[in-house]
Amino acid sequence: MSGGEDFVASSQHRMRENMDSKFLKRIKRRDRMARWLISAGGLTVIGSVLFILLLIVRVAVPLFQAPRAEVFSRFALPPEVPAAEVLTVGLDEYLESAFTLSRDGSFAFFEARRGELFDRLAVEPPTPAAQVTAVEYDGGHVYALLWSDGSLSLEQIRFQPQFDEQGRRSIVYNHERLALFSPPAGYPVRSLARIDGKGRQTRVSLLADNRLLVEQTEVSEDFLGNRSEERHEQVLEEAPVEAVTALALDHAGHTLYAGTGSGFLLRWNLEEAGSPVLLDRLPAFTDRRAVTALGLVFGDISLAVGDAQGGLSTWFPVVGEENSGEKRLHRIHTLKGHAGAVTTILPSQRDKSLLSLDQGGVLHLDHMTSERHLLALEGGTPLRHFAYSARGNGIFGIDADGQAVLWTVDNPHPEVSLGTLFGKVWYEGYPAPVFAWQSSSASDDFEPKFSLTPLIFGTLKGTFYAMLLAVPLALFGAIYTSQFGSPRLRQMIKPTVEIMAAIPSVVIGFLAALWLAPLIERNIAALFLSLALLPTTFVLALLAWQVARRSEPLRRIERGFEFLALVPVLVLAIAGAWVLGPLIESWLFAGDFRQWLFDTSGARYDQRNCIIIGFALGFAVIPIIFTIAEDSLSNVPGSLKAASLALGASRWQTVWRVILPSASPGIFAGVMIGFGRAIGETMIVLMATGNTAIMDLSIFNGMRPLSANIAVEIPEAPFGGSLYRILFLSAVLLFMLTFVLNTAAEIVRQRLRKKYGRF
Q1: How far apart are CA 577 and CA 593, in angstroms?
Q2: Roughly how many angstroms between the first and final C-alpha of the chain, as a whole number?
Q3: Which of 250, 267, 379, 592 could form a disulfide with 300 if both were Cys (CB 3.0 to 4.6 A apart)?
Q4: Is the confidence at residue 236, as pLDDT, over 90?
């Protein structure tokens, strides 16, 4: 080779090397760019998920924040309103006007922020020289004034907003006397009065000799419009011998409560005018300490009891253990106690919260149902009088030195605690503590019930029955398709099953609720009969096939098409069950399986129950599990299968001992992904579960999962309210549940991969 040829060859070699190096650099550059893009995309997805979680948590966190109270204003009472003469105080719901009521029967109105006295109102006394000796507050700024001559008047102060031409708001008040009761026969030490919705007036007086006098006046009107009054007066014969130290009367005047100095509680039914009935007389405390204060919680069902040792508890009537049907008072909730005797109890007018004042002037704010101690307020000198605004956003008080103070209160979620969210709670009207979810009602004094436990239970219950149906069918189908079926069969079955995943959830839920549920309800006996006939027929068909397969024509379809022989048998088994079902129901269950079920076990058959959700949700989960499991089984190296068969193992032995262990990581991942899909499913469970938030293991009852509850409740939840934030907390729980399950599944999958290899 000449020198020229050598030069050309070397030049070409160098050019190829340069081209190869440029090509390699370009490939590496593209690889780096792809790696950066993929990493950035993955981090973006993870960051987005975490950001969504933070947004949800941010909405739920205020549920557990402690209430706050801040001093809004503080001022001294003017000389014309002596603190020693003040009997009670009041506050409007806008925190703009506060007032005092003095012994001379005059109201003094103050501008709440600056403490300026802007008006005074003198209530007309029943007699010229009469003064107010005691005041009872009935809510809604209604005050029962006991005058020195023994008469009693009901006075109401109303605050109303007004707007001028420029749109500026001002608060005006007006006064109305609702009723005036004449002095009874015997000077009353304490007196309460109520007017019910029918106009009946009830007055209860504690006389100086410890007797309880009940006066009731019924007003009736005939068809001509003529009004008549019927008056009833009676001394309670069952009044206690020991001194009565506290009284409470509900807003309708139908139930009277009394506490005594020896720790007894008494309850009378005054609904039948002129015929009071003693319902309860029981010792409230084993040590017989005195009852010092009583107050009815919002709703007039629960009674708050304060005692001489500073204890505060709530009671309401429940059916006794003897199941007589009669309700007796029971102590239900015990709240945080005071350092001294409780002197006054004032209930909230919007929830089950209570304000209580002790003899040391310390004010407590507690919530009855959640048993949360919300606030403790005290100043330099003890409080003597206080008022709670109707909205629960302000407290106005006057201390022993005549200093007035107004607190603004931020207490948005007093009814929420870990106990009410996840524990059993004894709600009003219930015979025992329960897990309950009931967010709304038609009654204004309804107490919402926010237990998430039945919702979590419903989520797991529905998922369990769905997986009970989906996992066996999906796995057996995947094993047959990948290991026993022919390639042609696999090309038909796998796309068909994957198309099932494209069916909208709302369509599945619609069919389950409106077609499947009534169908199964009518043929429930046939369904259970088919559950017995199908496996029996399947086993018998397999035994018969072992004999029939000896025939050469049948042997030709054995490899990959065995199901063609089984499908007609299974169809006949289902048809037989559907025909025999009504006969079996008529023979064994008197023609009505649902009634027999209720009579024998007390279980009710709901049309939308666990059977329906098992079929509907299982149908939605099958494609996911089948696809992932089939891919994992098909990707097991053929050499493992060939080696097993070469050693003399049968096809089933090869699948059981070799293929399944090798594909177990992928199969387990598919099952867990299907489990996560079932937990997070919304539309199917919303339409097919009945949405009954109960905790019952019966397969014949429905449930309410967390996802369905969010979908049902969120449109009606007030923004920023307790229900609104609890629904976001439910979303956090769903996220945490799926996160924990997926993390555990990944740990198990990694261990399976290490044990059986990377396939």
Answers
A1: 15
A2: 55
A3: 250
A4: no
Burial 502-530 (b: 16+ CB within 10 A, else e): eeebeebbbbbbeebbeebbebbbbbbbb
Q: Which residues pair with 230 in a beta bridge?
A: 218
Distance of CA 383 to the CA centre of its chain: 37
Q: How far apart are CA 688 and CA 515, in angstroms?
A: 11
Please name every residue paired with 161 in a beta bridge, in sequence order, or none if there are none: 171
Residue 20, burial from CB neighbour count under 10 angstroms (0-12, 13-18, 19+):
exposed
Fold adopted by 450-756: MetI-like fold (1.10.3720)
Give the model's confidence band at 619: pLDDT under 50 very low, under 70 low, under 90 confident, else very high.
very high
**What Rg, from alpha-carbon coordinates, does the chain have?**
39
- Look at the pTM and tell me if it is higher than 0.90: no
Taking only the tens place, the pLDDT of each residue in 89-104 is 999 988 989 999 999 9
Question: Among 2-11, 342-351, 594-603, 688-697, whose mean pLDDT is lowest?
Answer: 2-11
Looking at residue 321, what is its pLDDT?
66
Least confident of 296-310, 331-345, 655-669: 655-669
CA atoms within 13 A on the CB side of 53: 14
Q: How far apart are CA 179 and CA 506, in angstroms?
A: 60
pLDDT of 209: 87
Q: How far apart are CA 709 and CA 144, in angstroms?
A: 46
Percentage of the chain lying above the pLDDT 70 cut: 92
- Read out DSSP for 235-266? E-TT--SSPEEEEEE-TTS-EEEEEETTSEEE
The Cβ-side half-sphere exposure at 281, using a 13 Å CA radius, reads: 11
The residues near 204 (Cβ < 8 Å, ≥ 6 apart) are 191, 192, 193, 212, 213, 214, 215, 247, 249, 256, 270
CB 205 within 8 A of CB 219: no
The continuous run of DSSP H or E covering 576 comes out as helix 563-588
Residue 98 and residue 398: Cα distance in Å, rounded? 11
Average pLDDT over residues 700-715: 90
Give the fold, CATH level 3, of 93-183: Thrombin, subunit H (2.40.10)
Joined together, the tokens standing for residue 213 give: 């006098």
pLDDT at 324: 62
CA distance 691 to 682: 12
Beta-strand runs (E) in 514-616: none
Residue 341 has φ and ψ, to the nearest 5°, of: -60, 140
In angstroms, the CA 57 to CA 101 distance is: 47
Q: How far is CA 78 from CA 89, 120, 275, 401, 416, in A?
A: 15, 12, 49, 12, 41
Q: Which two tokens stand for residue 600?
A: 């024998």
Tell me the range of 381-395, 563-577, 599-613, 632-646 where mean pLDDT is highest.
381-395
99 φ, ψ (degrees, to nearest 5): -150, 160
Tokens of residue 517, six digits: 């549920």
Beta carbons of 749 and 669 less than 8 angstroms apart: yes
Mean pLDDT of 660-670: 88
Work out the number of other CB atoms within 10 angstroms of the CB of residue 596. 16
Residues 6 or more apart from 747 whose CB is under 8 A from it? none
List pLDDT tens digits, range 5-46.
665 666 666 666 666 677 777 888 888 898 899 999 889 988
- Which residues, in sequence order, are bridge partners of residue 232? 216
Of residues 23 and 393, more confidently modeled = 393
CA 251, 252, 258: angle at the middle one, nearest 5? 65
- Could you tell me which residues come within 8 angstroms of residue 647 by beta carbon, excluding any fewer than 6 positions away? none
